[in-house]
Every structure is written in C-alpha cells, then in structure tokens.
Amino acid sequence: MGVRRALSLCMDSIRKKNLPIRTLGPIIHNSTVIEELESYGIKNIKSPEDVEHGDYVLIRTHGVTPQIRSALSKKGARIIDATCPKVARVQGIIRKHVSNGYFIIIIGDHGHAETQGLLGYAESKGQILSTKDEVEKFAASLDANQKICVVAQTTQEIEIFNELCAILEEHFKEIKIINTICDATRNRQEEIRTKAHRCSSIYVVGGKESANTKRLFEIAQKICPDTKLIERADEIDLHSLADKENVLVTAGASTPLWVAYEVLEKIASRSFISKFLNITGSKYMYWFCALLAIIISHLVCKDQGSFRTSMLFLGACVMLSRGTIYFYLKKLDVFRLDYFYGKIALFAGLILLAFLAVFFSYKAIFFLLYYGILFYVIYKNIAIARNLFFTLCNFIFLLVPFMVL
User: Fold this and answer.
1) Mean pLDDT highest for which of 41-45, 238-242, 277-281?
2) Per-residue pLDDT for 179 more than 90?
3) Within 13 Å of residue 148, how many CA atoms lie on the same side as its CB?
4) Which of 212, 228, 238, 343 sits a CA distance of 20 to 30 A from 260?
5) Can you name the residues that pair with 42 across neighbouring β-strands?
6) How far apart are the first and last CA of the chain?
7) CA geometry: angle at 317 spanning 316 and 322, to 5°?
C-alpha cells in the first residue's frame, strides 16, 4: 500500500506539474523501478542540503524526522508527503505518549530509515532495540517505575516483537505495548509459515536491501531450503524448475505488484496453456485481429449501414479492452504515463456501447456483460488472466461482423 501510494503520488505530480521531482532517499528498493523513475527526471537526493529553493521533494514511505521536515521547509522545498499512513500512525502514537511522560521503545532495525524517522518523534526519550541482549541491557539501565510505550517497525517480524515485548513486561511495572506491524507484512509472514512446508521451491521477490523482504526470505529459508531472493523475473532459471511441482511466489510489502506478477508469468510459462495464451494473446495478434475484423466486416456486411454498425461495435470493443488493460496495469502498480489515456478509452467505449444499446440493445448488453466478466476475472486473478483477456479480446474481434448480422 505505501509504495503504491508513493509511486502514484510521484507520477501524478510529474503529470500535473511537469517538473522534476526529488526523492529524499530511494523511493523503492528495486533497481529496475529506480531506473524507470529516473527516465522521467525523478532524482534521488541524500539530504536536505541537496535541495534548492522551490524544488518538489517527495518524502518516501518510511517517513522522516520532524527535524528533517523542518530543514526542508527552511530550504524552500515544496513537500510531497508520501509517508505510508501506517508509519504516520506510529509517528502519532509516539508523539502522543511522549507528551504523556512515556519512554518510547521501537522494536526494529538500527539504521533503518523508518526507525530513524520514528525515533525523531520521541524527542530524545526513545530507543531502538532489536535483540534480546539489547532489551535486557536496556531494562537493567532504567528504573522499573518508568512508564514505557513499545511500538514496532511496521515491517518487523511478529515473533521477534512478541518475544522482546515479553522480556520488557517482566522488568517494567507500567508498560503499554502497541503492535504497529503492518497487516500486509504480518499476512505475508503468516502465509509463508502456513504454505512453505508444502512447497518444493520458493521465490521471494523484492529488493535485496529491503528489510521486510529479507525477513520473508529468512522465514521461508528455515522451512524450505530451496528458497531464493530475487529482484526480477530474468533471475529465474526455468531449467532448474523442471522437476519442481509446487512453487510458492511471495513478495515484500514494498515490492510493486507488476514485478511480482512478471515472476509469476515466467514460472507459469512452463505450461502448455500459458504458451498457447502467450501466442494468441500477444499485442501483435490483438491489432491483427482488429484489422481482420474490419476486412471480414467489409466482405460479410450486405450494406454500408451494417458495415458502419459493425465498425461502431469494433471501436467500442477496442476502447473498452484498452481501458480494461489500463485498470489491470494500475492494479499491478505500473506507473508509466501513457497508461493515463486508458481511462479515456474506457469511458469512451462505455459511452459508445450505451449509444449502441439504444438501437441494438441485446447486442450491446452482450458486449457489456462480456467485458464485465473479463474485468472481474482480471481484477481478481493472477498471472494468466492478462493473456487470457487478450486471447478472448482477439476472439471477439473476429465475431464482431457476425454479431452485427
């Protein structure tokens, strides 16, 4: 959720402002995505000192300390706040409890951007702890009557959090524990623990510098030795998967869905059905079938009126399919600017079909029902759905002239 929102904010800002955007630190731990962003003029900076007056600066999902935010304002930066709402909630919890006299404990990784940002809200009344030894040393150094509030880095492993909290509860009389681990992180970890023992191979997709992705990899590797951490689909050796029956693919919370889906598609490509759909659902076949539908319509339609009607239906099909592809790609977090026009195509296709429904109601309703079902399948399904959609689009293009007749 956080990364999707940050990428969306970033690209929306590029569209609306048509200006270079600076990001304070890499917006995502994925070299492919970073290169894509740089092609749009999005530049990564390391500190507020690199900002010039009037620059648009995007604060990434991890958030920043109040001190850094203040430094950006003093430099005259125009801030685009992409802090993940889950992280912003933890910041609010820390601020509230510090004002009520609590000392803040953050269970998380030392040096991580998120924990450093959270610590800034503790106003020197907080500490990051990540191991049993650190917790025990801290507990021995502080008065047992001190009020303690414990929060978690949003991508922390739930078992580690519970284990360290149990030690703290033994030492402090007044302790408040708030589990702030992100649902997406918790669900992924639980899914691996539930399913990994049934798998012969596991691929964890995400940046190799991403803390939550590395945790998923560590959890999976303890259960299934044949676990690999990869960033892109081209790192997969399909020959090594020839004898693997059950392959589990999971992704870090910060991994864009389209990167994970590329991995799924490559693994699925081993099957005959997938190979067939790759051919029949290719973008070249898509336009070839549309052209073929025009030719067939011209030959089959008995009069010019029928031909025009056939072309109207074909136009509606093309626009609706392109628009549905747009929504599919948005679901996958693809952020290229040209997909913006998919919205226009979708609405234009719906308007055209609505117009046709006035004169050819039963036929227009058929097309609307067809695309409604496809939209649902694509939005709910995984890797194979996109190629299935393309194949069915190509098939219906050939049926357009006959539907009109």
Assistant:
1) 41-45
2) yes
3) 26
4) 343
5) none
6) 47
7) 100
114 given a catalytic annotation:
yes
The backbone torsions φ and ψ at residue 86, rounded to the nearest 5 degrees and listed phi first, read -70, -40
User: b or e along 295-329 (b: 16 or more beta carbons within 10 Å of the residue's beta carbon)?
Assistant: ebbeeebeeeeebebbbbbbbbbbbbbbbbbbbbb
| Amino acid sitting at position 358 | V
From the candidates 35, 38, 49, 114, give the one annotated as an active-site residue: 114
**Spatial distance between the Cα atoms of 99 and 110, rounded to a whole number of angstroms:** 24
Quick one: pLDDT band at residue 17, thresholds 50, 70, 90? low
Asked whether 403 and 370 are in contact (CB, 8 A), the reply is no
According to DSSP, the residues that pair with 43 across neighbouring strands are 22
Q: Is residue 23 helix, strand or coil?
A: strand
3-state secondary structure of 279: helix
Whether the CB-CB separation of 80 and 69 falls below 8 Å is answered with no
Concatenated DSSP letters of 358-390: HHSHHHHHHHHHHHHHHHHHHHH--THHHHHHH
Q: Is the pLDDT of residue 392 over 70?
A: yes
Rounded CA-CA distance 314/310 in Å is 6
d(CA 128, CA 135) in angstroms, rounded, equals 9
> What's the rounded Cα separation, in Å, for the pair 201 and 233?
15
Distances in Å between the alpha carbon of 234 and those of 208, 227, 231, 259, 266?
15, 16, 9, 11, 8
| pTM metric for this prediction | 0.71
pLDDT tens readout for residues 215-257: 899 999 999 988 999 988 888 887 777 666 688 888 887 787 7
Please check whether residue 68 is in contact with residue 51, taking contact to mean a CB–CB distance below 8 angstroms.
no
Distances (CA, A) of 189 to 185, 186, 194, 227: 6, 5, 9, 14
Dist. CA 385–CA 328, nearest whole Å: 10
CA nearest neighbour of 316 among 346, 349, 355, 364: 349
Distant-in-sequence, close-in-space partners of 222: CB < 8 Å, separation ≥ 6: none
DSSP code string of 288-328: HHHHHHHHHHHHH-SSHHHHHHHHHHHHHHHHHHHHHHHHH
3-state DSSP assignment of residue 180: coil
